[in-house]
Structures are given as C-alpha cells and as structure tokens.
Amino acid sequence: MSTEALEILHSHRSIRKFLDKEIDNETRQQLLQSARMASSSNHLQCVSIIRVTDKAMRQQLMQYCSNQEYVYTAPEFWVFCVDFAKHAEICPEAQLDWAEVLLIGAVDTGIMAQNVLASAELLGLGGVYIGSLRNEMEKVGELLQLPKHTLPIVGMCLGYPNQNPPLKPRLPAELMFFENHYQTLDQDKLAQFDQVTADYYQARSNIDNNWSKNVAKALNKPVRPAVLSYLQKQGFVKK
C-alpha cells in the first residue's frame, strides 16, 4: 500500500456534509466489490446491503435515526444487515438462535462496512456510520421488509465531502495495544488523554467534555433496551 493511501486511512474523519454531486455507477460498483471481497467467517457471507434511494423511505429513516439530516441528504445511504435468511432457506435445520451466530454476523457486518468506508475514502469520498439506526431497529426492519433471521446493524452515508472537520483524538497505543497479557488502565495516561479530548471538544464545539465523560454519558443508562426483544423476534440470541 502506498504512503499516500496510508495517510488517507490514518486521517479518517466522519463526514456529515456532502457536495451536491452523485456517486457514479462505476464508483458505486467499486465500493460494492470491496464489500463483496470482505473477510467472512467460515465463508458464510452472512451480510446483505440495502441501498436506499426512495426519498420517502430516506425521510422515514432520518426520523428513526434521531433526525440526522444527512441520512436524508447524503448522495448514498446504505444499510448493512446481518443476513442468515438465505442460510435458513438453504439449511432449514440451521441452528441460528445461538448467541455465537449473531456474533459471527455482527463481526462480518462490521468488516464489510469498514471495507466500504475505507475504499470510499481512498476514492476521494467521505462517509459516516449511522449507529442510531438501532434506535428504532424494529421499525427500520419493517420499513426495509427484512425477513426473519436478518437484522439492520448500521447505516452509512456516502458522498463527496463538503467539510474538513478536525481529526478526533484516538486512544494512545499504550491504552489499547498490549503484549501477551491485558494491562489494567493506566490512570496517568488516561488523565493525559482526557485533557487532549477536552481541548478537542472545547476547540470544536466550546463544550465541557472529555473521553471519560463521554464514556459515562453513553453507558451509565439503559442502552437501547428494546434491542434484545427484536433480536429474539428475528430468531437470534435465544441460547
């Protein structure tokens, strides 16, 4: 891989504002090929993508996704889905209700989605993951007419960037890359990283925030409590 390509991957940032410029079919097919060639556990290939072009559907999805306007306005919006429906058709006795099956599907979905986003950036595009798709997971599934044994995991907006946001700080290697054994949290390095992220949030949005506060904000409350019942309704995580 060229140094230029590495620089692009190392400077990843989420893009939420896009030029009024469509992605041509040739470029879209290149992204699709990157998706198709993603690694897959046991060659199960248990991911499907739904490209949403219908404006009314995009409007509805925007409402389901915390009214994030770019879900509607981005040139492309793709939904990455765990898909074991085809496997159930091929093998009706398939035991798809084990927790490990969903883990396989979720991991494969993440790998495929990242293949697409990385390829998009290498092609001069930008994008952003839409995890808020899971705020109304069941309604999204109904809108997309997803059958049993499928799940909408994450959305992705794609287009040509119309912004150049600052690079968001990432955890230092010492807090996430270990040799041989897991290392407990280094409080000094955490404090240093909290200061780095505090400076970032202050400069970007003039808000009082850091990484530790962000963690607490995200996790010190019920996290999408309706998800489990929908997973089970779709035939997953029953044992």
From TrEMBL:
<dbReference type="InterPro" id="IPR029479">
    <property type="entry name" value="Nitroreductase"/>
</dbReference>
<dbReference type="GO" id="GO:0016491">
    <property type="term" value="F:oxidoreductase activity"/>
</dbReference>
<dbReference type="InterPro" id="IPR016446">
    <property type="entry name" value="Flavin_OxRdtase_Frp"/>
</dbReference>
<keyword id="KW-0288">FMN</keyword>
<comment type="similarity">
    <text>Belongs to the flavin oxidoreductase frp family.</text>
</comment>
<feature type="domain" description="Nitroreductase">
    <location>
        <begin position="11"/>
        <end position="160"/>
    </location>
</feature>
<keyword id="KW-0560">Oxidoreductase</keyword>
<keyword id="KW-0285">Flavoprotein</keyword>
<keyword id="KW-0521">NADP</keyword>
<dbReference type="Pfam" id="PF00881">
    <property type="entry name" value="Nitroreductase"/>
</dbReference>
<protein>
    <submittedName>
        <fullName>Nitroreductase A</fullName>
    </submittedName>
</protein>
<dbReference type="InterPro" id="IPR000415">
    <property type="entry name" value="Nitroreductase-like"/>
</dbReference>
